[in-house]
Amino acid sequence: MEGRNLEWLLAAASDAMLIADHTGKILLANPALCTLFGYDDGTLPGQPVEVLVPTSLRGHHAALRNTYVEQPRPRAMGAGMELSGVHRDGREFPVEVSLSPLSADPPLVLAIVHDITRRKLAEAALQESEARMRAVFDSVADAIITIDEAGIIERLNPAAESLFGYPEAEAAGRNVSLLMPAGHRERHDGYLAHYRATGERKIIGIGREVEGLRKDGSIFPMELTVTEMWLGTRRMFTGVVRDISQRKQAEQENRQLMQELTSANEELTNFAYVVSHDLKAPLRGIGSLADWLATDYAQHFNEEGREHMRLLINRVHRMGALIDGILQYSRVGRVKEARVPVALSRMLADVVDLLAPPHNIQVTVQPDMPTLVLEPTRLQQVFHNLISNAIKYMDKPDGQVTVGCTEQDGHWRFFVADNGPGIEARHFERIFQLFQTLAPRDRVESTGVGLALVKKIVEMYQGSVGVESVIGQGSTFWFTLPAGGAPGQTGKQHETTE
């Protein structure tokens, strides 16, 4: 009856169990164990228990079994050892085995087997995760410090050791104020006490710039971010520290550079004032005197003298135009003007009217030109210079100048096309440089500032400028602007001529 009860209990148990005699022969195996090892056909009883042990371990297992028979007692099998079972199909898996002697003559043993595959996988995953975290902790460039809620240092990563000059073994167990200048130590302890008492965050989770103290006594600026974490019931804090000495130095250099730029701008403003007043005043005097001589003493000059006077007057006018061009160039980007909607059709009509092209040159502005939001004077300068050049250098009896635009990729592409003499490709970059002209100055009055001014204004609006040309057939100067006119603006409006 007792044997039947034991057999019934094993069959009802969810754990894998077997009973073996002192020779290692399996007498009973419950369904859970048969399923675990792949013997659902009931062939396991009568076989040696070593059939459940990997082949490489069977000899050692028999010796352990004999030792247990001599001193039977409840215990875990193979304490301190990794145990494995073998499935009927040859697959091995990790197990834990508990042994309990049963009163019988001869003695029997009850073995309870647990498949710990999932636990082993979880342990392996945890170890891998810890290894990865350790790799990050050890290799990250930022310094990482962990402290308990009393401010006692527990860990320093290698970057923190290098930054502060303390080996982890020397810093561990000491208050984190060790790494702070005197002025910060009391405040830090107060922050922690205040947070523990009230939960109000003044540092935790908030990045801030503070100062750190190295072992050698040097103080340096650093960026500190502190996060809170719980290990079971223990509250810990992790501080991530970044040395910002170079950034602070760069900021100081930038402030100094900005101060120098401000001074340079003031000097440039003063220079522009001097040029405008101190140079143009005597130049106007020279021009007036030359005009007076050319008019009142015309009968006293021979042909050569009259030519010299003409050249003198032209060069005075050119010098005045050059000074005006330099002043305009210096003001771009320095003197700001309010940005307002500019209807290009109306503005271009005013530009053409102001230029008053000769009767043999037709200037055509395409209809439906857009409205842009920018500084009107700057855009007027751009079109004035481009159309003026097309008129000035025209060599055809029937001159044609066309102004238009197209929209592409979020930009407007404007163009001024003419049927003039054209420009050789080798001069395309040179003509946009300051004071560069292609025609002799005594044949065509030019300061060499106009296209340089165009380029500077367009690039100020984050656009680009260029030229396409065929010798003898004409040139097309083009430039691009954001579709809204000013960087960061969108929206398109059109204005048609009336």
Automatic annotation (TrEMBL):
Matching SMART domains: HATPase_c (SM00387), HisKA (SM00388), PAC (SM00086), PAS (SM00091)
Coiled coil: 240-267
Membrane topology qualifier: Multi-pass membrane protein
A biological process term (GO) from this entry: osmosensory signaling via phosphorelay pathway
Reaction(s) the record says it catalyses: ATP + protein L-histidine = ADP + protein N-phospho-L-histidine
Residues covered by the PAC domain: 206-256
Ranges where the Histidine kinase domain occurs: 274-485
Main location: membrane
Biological source species: Pseudoduganella rivuli
CDD domains reported in the protein's UniProt record: HisKA, PAS
Protein name as catalogued: Sensor protein FixL
Annotated EC: 2.7.13.3
Keywords in alphabetical order: ATP-binding, Coiled coil, Kinase, Membrane, Nucleotide-binding, Phosphoprotein, Transferase
